[in-house]
Specification:
Layout (H helix, E strand, L loop, with lengths): L1 H7 L5 E2 L3 H4 L5 H13 L6 E11 L2 E11 L3 H22 L5 H15 L1 E2 L10 H6 L1 E2 L1 H14 L4 E8 L4 E9 L2 E5 L6 H7 L16 E3 L1 H4 L3 E3 L15 H4 L3 E2 L4 H13 L4 E6 L2 H13 L15 E5 L4 E5 L1
Parallel strand pairs: 4-5, 11-12
Antiparallel strand pairs: 1-3, 2-3, 6-7, 6-10, 7-8, 8-9, 12-14, 13-14
Helix pairs in contact: 5-7
Length: about 325
């Protein structure tokens, strides 16, 4: 709490209480505490590190002075914080605080993706200023902005760090929706990230949002992400508020009636594409064979449609179609 307060208020050097030292903590724990404070508080965007001085009596640590390191003056930080509050207040009003927790998570996911471009050279890309003030960021900025908005909307959300299958360091979020935990990766949901990373051959045909990373389980996430636990995190197994389940796009078997309903709803809301997600590889192959190889897709498209564009994602068991 003392370190959190010192960083949050940009205090100078503070003398930490001795009670934790009496309980066995020492200077080795300061780094973990600092990391936890920064993980829990995206609004402390101006802190970049810390210094400390240790006082010893013999081999026993009897006192520690702590001081944060900042990239902004206090006046500059106050100005930026106020700018962020004004911008995010408009976003939060647009989302609506009366929505369900799932609807809030989905709305924040979409809002950040539509408002942000993935840019390795974006200024302040390790904090929320990049998203809210610049409209461009990298994974750390996306994740902290997601956390900032959801916490203000009353949804538990924290930052998770680790690596992805390419070996790169990465950041995403853990959320709690209606009592269950899920992972959310706003960065990987952004088509601009996929284009930057060169992960697709025809980037121009990408949907603007990839929902494969909206409220997913540990098992789903672990196909591409490896978690580095600063503190223990829960194993996420619930599927109730997974995007595809909630939106009626999750298939455990081939159902022509359900597919027809999906496409009818997409046309009704004038959506430009449809993605179906399958529970198992066998279901994916069966639906793929019916829709593509047997050209069953034309049963569900407008009568004047002569050709159709589609994309397959075997790893995620997705089929996407452009209307």
């Amino acid at each position: 709490l003392e370190i959190e307060q010192a960083l949050g208020e940009m205090e100078g050097t503070v003398k930490l209480s001795t009670d934790p030292l009496e309980q066995g903590l020492d200077e080795q724990d300061i780094d973990k505490i600092f990391q936890c404070v920064m993980i829990d508080h995206p609004e402390i965007f101006y802190a970049t590190g810390y210094t400390y001085t240790k006082y010893s009596r013999g081999e026993k640590t009897v006192g520690i002075d702590f001081a944060g390191s900042y990239e902004l003056t206090e006046e500059e930080a106050i100005v930026r914080a106020e700018q962020i509050r004004k911008i995010t207040a408009d976003w939060i009003r647009g989302i609506g605080e009366d929505k369900s927790e799932y609807e809030k998570v989905k709305a924040v996911y979409e809002q950040i993706i539509f408002a942000t471009d993935y840019d390795l050279n974006a200024p302040d890309n390790q904090n929320i200023c990049s998203v809210f003030l610049e409209g461009a960021s990298v994974c750390q900025g996306y994740a902290k902005a997601t956390q900032y908005l959801l916490n203000h909307l009353g949804v538990m959300c924290t930052l998770v760090q680790g690596t992805v299958d390419t070996g790169e360091a990465h950041a995403w979020n853990l959320v709690r929706v209606d009592g269950d935990y899920y992972y959310v990766d706003t960065t990987w949901g952004d088509a601009s990230y996929q284009m930057t990373e060169g992960s697709v051959q025809n980037a121009g045909s990408l949907p603007p949002i990839n929902y494969d990373y909206l409220c997913v389980t540990t098992g789903q996430l672990s196909k591409t992400h490896t978690i580095e636990e600063v503190v223990p995190v829960p194993v996420c197994t619930a599927m109730t508020d997974n995007y595809y389940v909630r939106e009626g796009l999750y298939f455990t078997e081939l159902s022509k009636d359900r597919i027809a309903d999906v496409f009818a709803r997409a046309y009704e809301r004038q959506s430009s594409y449809v993605t179906l997600k399958c529970s198992r590889r066998e279901v994916y192959e069966e639906i793929r064979r019916f829709l593509i190889e047997e050209q069953g897709i034309f049963e569900f498209l407008n009568p004047d449609t002569g050709t159709v564009s589609y994309a397959e994602n075997v790893e995620q068991l997705d089929l996407s179609f452009w209307l």
